[in-house]
Amino acid sequence: SARDSGALTQEQAAAVDVALFDLAMSAAYKDFNESRLNEAIEKARAAHELDKKAEAPVGLIAEAYSRQGRAQAALDELNRYIAQNKASGRLLAQRGYLRRAMQDLKGAAADFEAALAAPDIEPSQTLPLQNALAEATKAEQDSIVQAELAEVYAAIAKRDYARAVKAARVLRAKYPNAEAPVFALMTALTKSRQVKEAVKEADAFIKDNTPSATLLAQRGYSRRATGDLPGAIADFRAALAQPALEPAQAKRLKLALAEAERANESGGSSVGAQATPLQQALNSGYDALKVGRPDEAVRAAREAHSLDPKAEEPVLLLLTALLRQGRKAEALAEANRYLASVPDSPGVLAQRGFMRRQAGDVSGAAADFEQALKYELPADQKLNVAQALDEARYTLVAEKAFKALAARDWVSALRYGRAAEAFPRADEAVFRVTIAALAGLGHPDEALRASNALIARGKATGQAYAQRAYLRKTLGDGDGALADFVKALDRGGLPAAQRVAVELEIAIARSSAYETQGDVMRARDELVNFAHTHPGYAAGWSTLGQFYARQKEY
User: Which stretches of 158-246 are DSSP H helices?
Assistant: First the structure.
């Protein structure tokens, strides 16, 4: 290839190395999206060999293992990388969700907390992570209780409500300050048509403890069912006042509050206030999620969906519960199935978009986000989807720029690079594509101006300094080039091959300076030291040979 034959300048070769990595990852993502998981893992590993420090291959390999049901292999992959590198918030969050699916709640909580402290987390990811952290922390604390609650939920599933109530009362007495047994007991009592008893149990707990929004909401629904509309209204309002409510829960509570207020103003009866079977199923599902019972939430969501196959909320609940269990492929299949019959569902379109984005199908994600924004969405969700769409569009343009650079199509690389630069979220890599394209088109002065502007923005990486060093060298600024090569090593983050190439440039520059001063011994030592440090790097020996030839030391 042109790269191996030396037809490219070192600066162009370094840019192509980066582009080849992105091209390899693009192929890996394509295999992943088309369910060729073994091929995706193989190609991601090949990309990892090109850049050992890169996160993307590790994240994709872990996702592929998870899709294959090999959760431990996925966790091992993430653990290895995170132990040796400074992981981004996204990768920490990925491990957190995996740990949660594997019931390592303590580890999941630690990862969610670390992810929230990372600078790369998008605003749209903050609330889900905060909720995940709160849930993991609480679930970890309640894990012992949850194990014992299995008997209660098993009895409820078999409709043996008397046994469920009895077992729940035992746990309620054993763990007087835990909410989970209260939920289980209220569920069992409600199923056995003892709604007033369920309210009494909630009253007793709330009197001595600080209730969650979910428990307040549950008591509100039970009060509404008994005809106590003022009490239900008070509970719904108190639940809505709680911080960090999920959008779906807030939406449910607002609807329930409005309905209870209308019924109360018109003197509605208890019958009018009774929750519909659909509402009861949804309430049961959301409550199950809150107490760490995603399996029960899946069951409730499927029940709700059967009651109204066209309704959006049961499907959103089902997707959430399936994802909570790590069943990503099944969740995506459910979303596809629903949208085939209800294509104008903004909530499910948005959710499928986020699932596709996580799976690496950026094009599909962008299409879903764009479609979802054509319909009505809550203001906060609309903002999140709009931000996600902008990010997806940027990723698609940037990928075209990287592919063009790898193919040495300088004209296309320049066009797509500049298009990517126009996005507010544009990162350094696309600016480096534009600079490399300008140099490739024979405009080194313009490329240098662009490189200066990039570095002047601050926080430039070692790759940016290395790129400018090659440009300065091309234009005859040896001192400036040497300073930038040294700065590139100081900044770090260079791919392994580029780092060695930069070290050679520094050795050559210093050797040349000594040679000009007539200090042949020190000039030779610079090159000898490099060759011995990197004995497998052919260019080092070639440069040393050329030095000996100049000195006529044959």
Answer: 161-174, 179-191, 195-208, 213-226, 229-240
CB 17 within 8 A of CB 52: no
The answer to whether the CB of 405 falls within 8 A of the CB of 433 is yes
pLDDT at 14 over 70: no
Residue 379 has pLDDT above 60, yes or no: yes
Q: Is the pLDDT of residue 347 over 50?
A: yes
Structure tokens at 303: 């029940």
d(CA 187, CA 169): 12
Q: How far apart are CA 510 and CA 475, in angstroms?
A: 18
In a domain, 389, yes or no: no
User: Does some domain include residue 8?
Assistant: yes
Q: Classify residue 469: in a domain, yes or no.
A: no
CATH of the domain at 27: 1.25.40.10
* Enclosing domain of residue 87: 2-139
Helices 362-372 and 346-358: angle between axes, nearest 10 degrees: 160
The set of residues, in sequence order, having a beta carbon less than 8 Å from that of 19 and lying 6+ positions away, is 402, 403, 405, 406, 433
d(CA 481, CA 469): 4
Task: Report the alpha-carbon distance of residue 315 to residue 304 in Å, rounded.
Answer: 9
Take residue 35 and report the two structure tokens written for it. Answer: 């369910």
Contacts 24+ apart (CB under 8 A), 490-496: 490/462, 491/460, 491/461, 491/462, 491/465, 492/462, 493/53, 493/461, 493/462, 493/463, 494/462, 494/463, 494/466, 495/14, 495/17, 495/18, 495/21, 495/50, 495/51, 495/53, 495/463, 496/51, 496/52
Mean pLDDT of all residues in the chain?
Answer: 87
φ, ψ for residue 284, nearest 5 deg: -60, -40
Cα(201)–Cα(238) distance, integer angstroms: 18
The answer, yes or no, to whether residue 452 has pLDDT greater than 60, is yes
Residue 265 has pLDDT above 90, yes or no: no
pLDDT at 508 over 60: yes
Please check whether residue 519 lies inside any domain of the structure: no
The tens digit of pLDDT for each residue in 469-482 reads 999 999 999 999 99
What backbone torsions phi and psi does residue 420 show, to the nearest 5 degrees? -70, -35
Task: Residue 317: name the closest of 286, 338, 354 by CA.
Answer: 286
Q: Per the structure, how many domains does the chain have?
A: 1
Q: Are 399 and 387 in contact (CB under 8 A)?
A: no
